[in-house]
Structures are given as C-alpha cells and as structure tokens.
C-alpha cells in the first residue's frame, strides 16, 4: 500500500511555524516511504476566510522548500483539492448518512439553540438536545419543500466507547456521551471541518494523518463517521503543540514572530528554521543537531516523536542556529540569499551593485556577528556609504578635541604616503605612528574607528581600512576633520 500523507491548511490567517513543523513531518514520512504528499485547502469556514491566505500559505510552503505531489496548481487523481470546490461530494455523502439513519436534518433556529445553551449552562453541559431527531417524516418533507434553513447533524450513538490507536499516544478511548451531535453540513451548504476531513481523507486515500494534538478530542467524531460509512480510518499520529519557553500555552506574538512569513522577513533562513522545527517533537536519539531536510527524511520515524502535550519553542536557540547557518554559508551563496531576501521582502541592500570581491571581503568580516539576514545592513553600511559623524561621538575617546584632531591629522599624513595599501601594511605603520607619538592605542584607534565607520563596535579596524581603500579612507578622514 502506498503511503499517502497530507497537509490541510485552513486559509483563516497566517501560516504558523507549528504548521510547517507538522507539514515537515508529514512530508518526510511520505518521502521516506516513497509515498505521496498532498496539499489540500480546507476553506469551508466562510466566516473566518481571509482573502489572500490561500496564496500566502502556498507561497510560504514553497519558500520553506517543500513541494506537493498532488494539490492546488499541481492537480492529481483525487481532485479538486480545494474543499469549496467539492460541496456536491459532501452533500451526497451526508445524504447517504441520513438514508442509513446516521444523520438527520435539524431545522432549529439560532434563537432556539441560543436558549438551549443558556439553559444548559446552569447544568454545565453543552449538547444539542436532539429536538429535530423526533420530527416525523412528513414534517421533515414539508420543511425541505418550504426550504426552511437547516443543517445536517450526525447521530452520535449513546453510551459507546469510541477508541483509536494513536501511533504516538497509544490507545485513546472517549465515551460517545461526551460527543455532541456534530453538524456535518451547515446552513450555507458548506460542510464542517469534521465532515469534509473524513470524506476527503478517505477519497484521497490518505493512509497517515499527523496533526496537532489539539485535534485529539475531535478524532472520535471522525472515527464514528468512518464507521457509519463503513470505511477504514487512516492511522493517526497526534503531535505535540508548540509553546513559549516558560509559558504554558501556545506561541504568542508577545514573545516575537509566530508566522513563518514573519520569521522569513526577519531574515531567518528556511534551512535553519526547518532544522530547528524538526526537533520540536522529534529527535534522532543521538547528539547530531544539524540536519538537512534530506537527512531528516532519512532519519525520521514516528516512533521517535515524543508523546507529550507541548514542546518549548526556544527562540534563543533558533537565533543561535540561524547564526550558525549564516556563518557556514559560503560568501557567494550568502550573497545570493541576501539579494533574494531583500527583493522578496522589499528591503534595501547595501552594496547591491558593488563589486563581488568587495562584498565577499565584507561578508568575511561580518558573518560571525550576523544572526539574521536583516542584520546585514547595520553591520555593512559603512563599507558602502560614508557614515554620519558627530563631534561629540568622534572625540569621546580623547581628552579633548584638539588631541583628537591631532591624531586624525597624523593618520591622514601617514596614510597619504602609503603606496602598497593592504591590511598588514596599514596595521604596521599605524602602530609605529602611535608609539612614536605616544598615543594610547585605545584613544587613537577608537577615534579612527569612529571617523571611518560612525560606530564604536566593529571588526578589526585595519581590516576595514583595507577594504575601504586609500582614497575613501583619506576622504573620510578629511570629512571627520571638518565636523
Ligand atoms: N484544516 C485543519 C487545520 O487547519 C486540518 C486539521 C487536520 O489536519 O485534520 O488545522
Ligand atoms: Zn434541530
């Protein structure tokens, strides 16, 4: 039997990092077993539908390096893969359930249901009271003819243990008395998630469903529906959800980005983000921490997923890992990524049109400090643009302005005579100069650094001077002396 997994996003908002983690597990499992990975759009909740979300989700999934074998834009044997294009299918199957006595029409008005909920609140329950289950055949016919607004509800059996064997959480049993007569088809003709997910997973021949464990309480409804239809359910594996370090619930914007798009726009590399997300629920049982997607596919197994409720999303660790990936990326590749990133997210990029040789020399100097692509500009700006210097800052490492000017004049003089402009040469003559004049290294080199870069924390100043070139250095010394 071919392994077939799926990811079934709802276009109700942004695609979150937790979604990509779940997608990656489904993707890896399909790839590892030479199976198929399917993308299905679950857009049946018209109230929460966000225009543009379908496109955004697909864009994000592609940016993260995943492709699907069947789904929107790709097609496949079991399409359409967008639920709003399958309404007739759900209707047909819901009517089949009615015919078999596993579902019924409900004509209750919103007011009636509201009153019911109010009354039930006092007793701490919340379940449909099956008012419409008692309707006579001719009453139902009459209502249907008159087109009275209606939904279709599933008829959940009484006092029945519903069990399934989760591949991660083992056997789970929930008594049917805890399950409401779930609406299957809403008044607008759209199916609910529960109806659509069962019909589609069956028709699309999905063999394994990995999803967040917040869906565990819904699974008995799905199991019952499979039973009503006489279908074999897929294997379920419910995954831990993500939470903030120190938090008890899900990820929160208060702590930083949550959506994948935001993380990418901040300058996280997809490879680093994927690597980090792989470990949120799974680990290889070794101390290998750096994983490509290929390696993950090779080593992934459902058995090694933690049967826990929540796993911590350690933002510091993610940042560290991103820095590591940036450090380990060759300059040419990193420059390509920076260009693609700045174009995609519409950010300015210093040195965009500069010579590659210069850019690569700059990257060599700043790469170790760069944890995010977005930090590039603030680390690299002075290599490509003259800094803005203020007098106060410029002379803050010398006793007074006069001494500072003397130092800068001195550097200007010795540098203007240098023919062979290179880092070791500048290093040597600069040191010779300050010892001859008895300047302290700190006062001299900090003043020089500020004049050259406008910053106090930079890489080695002579490396910077080497890249800037003699002309620029002399020009900047001149401007600094003019402020
Ligand atoms: N559309 C559901 C969601 O957005 C899919 C849940 C499932 O995988 O069954 O989470
Ligand atoms: Zn009713």
The ligands bound in this entry are: glutamic acid, zinc ion
Give the number of domains: 3
Helix fraction, binned, reads: 40-55%
> In CATH terms, what is the architecture of the largest domain?
3-Layer(aba) Sandwich
Q: What profile does the largest beta sheet have?
A: 3 strands, antiparallel
- The fourth-level CATH homologous superfamily of the largest domain is HUPs
How many distinct beta strands? 11
Bulk shape:
elongated
Please summarize what this structure is:
With 483 residues, this protein is mainly alpha-helical.
Mind explaining what this structure looks like?
This protein has 20 helices and 11 strands. The chain has 483 residues and is mostly helical. A hairpin with a 3-residue loop joins strand 5 and strand 6. The model has no long low-confidence stretch (mean pLDDT 97).
SSE map:
Layout: E1 4-7, H1 17-32, E2 36-39, H2 53-63, H3 87-100, E3 103-106, H4 110-121, H5 137-145, E4 151-154, E5 161-166, E6 170-175, E7 183-185, H6 193-203, E8 208-212, H7 219-229, E9 235-239, E10 241-244, H8 260-265, H9 270-278, H10 293-299, E11 310-313, H11 315-327, H12 331-344, H13 356-366, H14 376-384, H15 391-394, H16 401-416, H17 423-437, H18 441-453, H19 461-468, H20 470-482
Parallel strand pairs: 1-2, 8-9, 10-11
Antiparallel strand pairs: 3-4, 4-7, 5-6
Helix pairs in contact: 1-10, 6-7, 9-11, 16-17, 16-18, 16-20, 17-19
This protein binds glutamic acid and zinc ion.
